[in-house]
């Protein structure tokens, strides 16, 4: 995409995310990622303007308007390992859905406070949600963990007004909804543990380092690595636990 004109015109350009998501909403899996560049006080080769600097193609540095998200899911394998370490449940991931993807993006920069714009006008500033492909996992050589193939996707920026990690409220942040099954491991039912519980858990996406300018935000031309392992931990001498179902992992 390209445009010549004032900087205000450029920054005001907004596009529909659906039209550019690879492999989603009818788009090809290799759909080109939108890119942009802002150059001030230059002239177009086809529209010379007196007093401005001439521009050549080699001087244009494009920036990807989308972020890349790399998701590496893992799940605990149920069984007994030695005399003391027992994982009673066997977890399998059956679905991953990405939620709160902004339905609009701007080529000139992030749409600030997208969550507030959505609250004021959900028609113009809606959110998208869609399923991601979950591949066939492999087991590590310890037999403790199954690892699923990394899922790499591209999505637009998401700048929200009040990003918070560790809260039950997502505050407009983009997140993963992970569906899983849980059953007894190879040791079978164990009376000291409650029955397995299948369900859903959640994982936020965004800059996690506190005190930074982009804390909790998803910004363009940045790679976010999301790694998580589903499981439920016990202390054999005091088998209390926090169930995974409904939990926000971060």
Secondary structure elements and their pairing?
Blueprint lengths: L6 H6 L1 E3 L18 E2 L5 E2 L9 E2 L8 E2 L1 E11 L2 E3 L3 E3 L1 E14 L1 E3 L7 H7 L6 E6 L5 E2 L5 E3 L3 E6 L18 E10 L14 E6 L18 E8 L20
Parallel strand pairs: 3-4, 6-17
Antiparallel strand pairs: 1-10, 2-5, 6-13, 6-14, 7-8, 9-11, 9-15, 12-13, 15-16
Task: Report on this structure.
The chain has two helices and 17 strands. Helix content is about 5%, strand content about 35%. The chain has about 250 residues and is mainly β. The mean pLDDT is about 85. Strands 6, 12, 13, 14 and 17 form a five-stranded mixed β-sheet that branches. The protein has a four-stranded antiparallel β-sheet with strand order 11-9-15-16, with no helix packed on it. The protein has helices at about 5-10, 115-120, and strands at about 15, 35, 40-45, 55, 65, 65-75, 80, 85, 90-100, 105, 125-130, 140, 145, 150-155, 175-185, 200-205, 225-230.
The shape is elongated
- Proportion of beta-strand residues: 25-35%
The portion of residues assigned to helices is under 10%
Number of helices: 2
Give unreliable regions as ranges.
none
The main sheet comes to: 5 strands, mixed
Protein structure class? mainly beta
How many DSSP E strands? 17
Mean pLDDT: 87
Order of SSEs, N→C?
HEEEEEEEEEEHEEEEEEE
Radius of gyration using CA atoms only: 23 Å
Note the gap between the termini: 36 Å
């Amino acid at each position: 995409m390209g445009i010549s004109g004032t900087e205000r015109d450029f920054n005001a350009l907004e596009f529909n995310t659906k039209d550019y998501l690879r492999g989603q909403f009818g788009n090809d899996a290799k759909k080109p990622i939108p890119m942009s560049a802002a150059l001030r006080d230059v002239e177009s080769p086809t529209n010379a303007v007196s007093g401005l600097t001439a521009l050549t193609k080699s001087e244009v540095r494009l920036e990807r308007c989308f972020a890349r998200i790399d998701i590496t899911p893992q799940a605990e394998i149920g069984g007994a390992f030695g005399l003391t370490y027992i994982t009673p449940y066997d977890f399998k991931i059956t679905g991953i859905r990405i939620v709160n993807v902004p339905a609009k993006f701007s080529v000139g920069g992030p749409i600030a406070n997208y969550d507030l714009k959505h609250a004021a006008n959900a028609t113009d500033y809606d959110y998208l949600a869609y399923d991601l492909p979950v591949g066939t996992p492999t087991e590590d050589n310890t037999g403790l963990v199954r690892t699923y193939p990394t899922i790499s996707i591209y999505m637009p920026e998401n700048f929200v007004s009040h990003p918070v990690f560790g809260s039950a409220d997502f505050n407009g942040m983009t997140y993963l909804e992970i569906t899983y099954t849980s059953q007894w491991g190879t040791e079978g039912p164990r009376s000291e543990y409650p029955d397995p519980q299948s369900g859903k858990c959640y994982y936020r996406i965004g800059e996690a380092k506190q005190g930074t300018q982009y804390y909790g935000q998803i910004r363009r031309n940045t790679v976010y690595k999301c790694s998580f392992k589903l499981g439920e931990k016990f202390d054999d001498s005091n088998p209390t636990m926090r169930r995974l179902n409904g939990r926000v992992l971060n």
